[in-house]
Amino acid sequence: MATIEELAAKVAELEQQMAAITAPPTEYYTSAYSGEEIDAAVKKVSEGLAGGVASFNGRTGAVLPQSGDYNATQIPVSGEPEAETVAAALSNKAPAGFGFGDAIQDIATTSAEESYETYCAKVDAVLDAMPDKTAKLVRAYPPAVYGNAGTTISLLYKGDANYAVLSNIGSADAGLCGWRMFKLRYPSSSSPAVWMPFEWEHPPMKIGVEYRTSERYNGKPVYTKLVDCGAGPSNTRKTVSANTQNVETPISCTGNFGSGTIPYEWFAGDVSGAQAITCTFNGQAIEIAATADYSGWTVFVIVEYTKTTD
């Protein structure tokens, strides 16, 4: 049994331990929020955990995150490009990393009678939706090629509101190949932008049709036309109207008859017996001269010229 002295010592030890426990702290933490704010926050968390989310993106119950719940515009990153800019760039990227990316658009004329100006307005409507200095592939059918079968692929380029080019790349139909349209300030760099006349790079050369070409002579557009001159002359001259208007400068005149080209000269032995056929063009009429009988062949002549209207 413990003695009185031992019990007293035990009590003294317990008193020392109690004093240590009840000693006031020497360091304190000061909260950034008041007690009321902390209570309100704890209440919201408690209510949220208890009630949960009724639904999210069409899912109910225990909703878990899924791919596609958020897009780039909802997750901004400090110091990086604007999320909207990144999202727009990604949405316009080309499929598989190559090509123009957009579906090929039709720009078609409604009939052979549709005016060139009306068709240009259709092209302008497509250009309005394009940023500057961009290009896209289109299926273009201007009035000049209306009624031709086949698919024609063209490149539409927009420099800015005052400059654009629609250029045919190719087609399975030869009648659709090799043409262009371009828009620029005309007649000077301070003038309003206008669509220039339709031009052919590779005209199909149908008989009696005048073609404005992409070639230039002394800075002016070159026109060309294939004329059926009928039967060739026999030891004489023949004049045929070219049905051309406003010709400024005749450039060239060539032709063919059967399997021969014009100008043509043939002789056997003595030059005095030479046989020849030539053609000239004065801007209005074609003159064919022959020193032999060429009446058995049909003569076709191609003329090239510039116009006073350009």
Commentary on this structure:
This protein is of the alpha+beta class and 310 residues long. 18% of the residues lie in helices and 36% in strands. The strands form 4 sheets. Strands 3, 4, 5, 6, 7, 8 and 9 form a 7-stranded mixed sheet that branches. Strand 16 and strand 17 form a beta hairpin. The longest helix has 18 residues. The relative contact order is 0.08. The mean pLDDT is 81.
Q: What is the helix fraction of residues, given as a range?
A: 10-25%
Structural class: alpha+beta
**Gap between N and C termini, in Å?**
134 Å
- DSSP strand content: 35-45%
Write the element-wise H/E pattern from the N-terminal end onward: HHEEHEHEEEEEEEEEEEEEEE
Give the tags:
rod-shaped; single chain; 310 residues; five-stranded antiparallel sheet; 18% helix
Layout: helices, strands, pairs:
Elements lengths: L3 H18 L13 H17 L3 E2 L2 E2 L22 H9 L13 E4 L7 H13 L5 E8 L10 E9 L2 E9 L7 E7 L7 E3 L3 E2 L9 E8 L2 E12 L5 E5 L5 E11 L2 E3 L1 E3 L8 E7 L3 E6 L7 E10 L3
Parallel strand pairs: 3-4
Antiparallel strand pairs: 1-2, 4-5, 5-6, 6-7, 7-8, 7-9, 10-11, 11-18, 12-17, 13-14, 13-18, 15-16, 16-17
